[in-house]
Write a structure and sequence with these properties.
This protein folds into three domains: 4-127, NAD(P)-binding Rossmann-like Domain (Rossmann fold), CATH 3.40.50; 131-241 and 280-296, no CATH class; 297-366, RNA polymerase sigma factor, region 2, helix turn helix motif (Rna Polymerase Sigma Factor, Chain: A, Orthogonal Bundle). The model has no long low-confidence stretch (mean pLDDT 94). The strands form two sheets. A six-stranded parallel beta sheet has the order 3-2-1-4-5-6, with helices on both faces. The chain is 46% helix and 15% strand. It has helices at residues 14-25, 41-50, 61-71, 87-96, 105-111, 113-118, 129-137, 163-166, 171-174, 184-192, 194-207, 245-253, 285-295, 299-315, 322-334, 343-365; strands at residues 4-9, 30-37, 58-60, 76-79, 99-102, 124-126, 146-153, 214-218, 224-230, 235-239, 276-277.
Length: 366
């Protein structure tokens, strides 16, 4: 077996560091040939030294990451950058013909049809645990046999809360996720369920399934990572411990599996799995996501960018928890998209959304 050459973008973040762990544990399957990082240069240089990388294949910032994705000889680019700044590297990877192991959901969501128009069939391999699960479940049947995609959500730290209870939550509480250890933005997005809204749009774009056939159910144990319901009434679920190294390894080795990527579930021990309906009246981010996903154009970019501004403002003590989704909704309602979606119009829409959201934040904070 020849090792796959892998570039890891966002190497110092949660996804990136786990990807390097998988690569280091499986030298016969993977060869690290380049890394890109944001501000954490010291860690990036430590990583490069550990894997014997030359300084010429260490990139900083999205522009250098895009150039690396184009120029460095590799089989797979794992895009683990956080936020829509990952759009450039995603487009560069697809244009180069390399396989894109996509953990940076924002780039697909804000890029939408622009990204899909460049991608070849099966060139994008999802790394999000939910979408990796869906991709695995879809092996069980043909596209015409799929009735529904069912995304699972842990429910975050505020599962079962009412809107009045959510008004009082603090940034520290929002970061106390019951299952996953993630960065500040993604963890907060899980608490508001904006993350699940983004994943809803991502599932639609990845698998070409209408929003009406994509459901969300709350599963607090995070063992069933998602399911596919088929037309004959059969439902196929992908189950594993809540460990991102499995979808990361599968994303880099697709369609082959990496032995021992994570420990399997132990069915010799008693366990219970819960499934509960999602209260979209309390967590309105899901309803908003369906709305912007169906509208398309640059609406998803506005949804994402206004959320990023609101999350930062929440952690800075400028707004309350519920005002995060209120700012997203008001930004989406005020947006007037251009007739054509290009990378320029996407970036313009994002900039507009950030400025509009900042204006709303200033009004609330003043």
């Amino acid at each position: 077996m020849q090792a796959k050459k892998v570039i890891v973008l966002g190497s110092t973040g949660s996804i990136g560091t786990q990807a390097l762990e998988v690569i280091g544990n499986n030298p016969e399957r993977f060869e690290l040939v380049g890394i890109a990082a944001g501000a954490n240069r010291d860690l990036a240089f430590e990583q490069a030294k550990r894997f014997g990388l030359d300084k010429s294949v260490i990139a900083f910032g999205s522009d250098q990451a895009s150039q690396m994705a184009k120029d460095v000889d590799a089989d797979v680019v794992l895009n683990g950058i956080t936020g829509s700044v990952g759009l450039g590297p995603t487009l560069a990877t697809l244009e180069s013909g390399k396989t894109l192991a996509l953990a940076n959901k924002e780039s697909l969501i804000v890029g939408g049809e622009l990204v899909k128009s460049i991608a070849s069939p099966d060139q994008i391999v999802p790394v999000d645990s939910e979408h990796s699960a869906l991709a695995q479940c879809l092996w069980a049947g043909d596209a015409k046999e799929v009735a529904r995609l069912i995304l699972t959500a842990s429910g975050g730290p505020f599962r079962g809360f009412s809107r009045s209870e959510l008004e009082k939550v603090t940034p520290a509480q929002a970061l106390a996720h019951p299952t996953w250890v993630m960065g500040r933005v993604v963890t907060t997005n899980s608490a508001t369920l904006v993350n699940k809204g983004l994943e809803l749009i991502e599932a639609h774009l990845l698998f070409d399934v209408e929003f009406e056939r994509i459901a969300v159910t709350v599963h607090p144990q995070s063992i069933v990572h998602s399911m596919v319901e088929f037309v004959d009434g059969s439902t196929i679920a992908q189950c594993s411990p809540p460990d991102m190294k499995l979808p990361i390894a599968l994303g880099m080795s697709w369609p082959e599996r990496t032995p021992g990527a994570v420990s399997a579930l132990d069915f010799s021990k008693s366990q219970q799995w819960q499934f509960e309906p999602l209260d979209e009246g309390v967590f309105s981010a899901i309803r908003l996501a369906r709305q912007v996903g169906q509208e398309g154009k640059t609406y998803p970019a506005v949804y994402n960018a206004s959320n990023e501004q609101a999350v930062e403002a929440f952690h800075d003590g400028k707004i309350g928890f519920l005002q995060i989704t209120e700012i997203i909704e008001r930004s989406v309602e005020a947006h007037q998209p251009e007739s054509e979606t290009t990378i320029e119009t996407v970036l313009q829409a994002e900039q507009w959304a950030r400025e509009f959201a900042d204006g709303l934040i200033d009004q609330i904070h003043s």
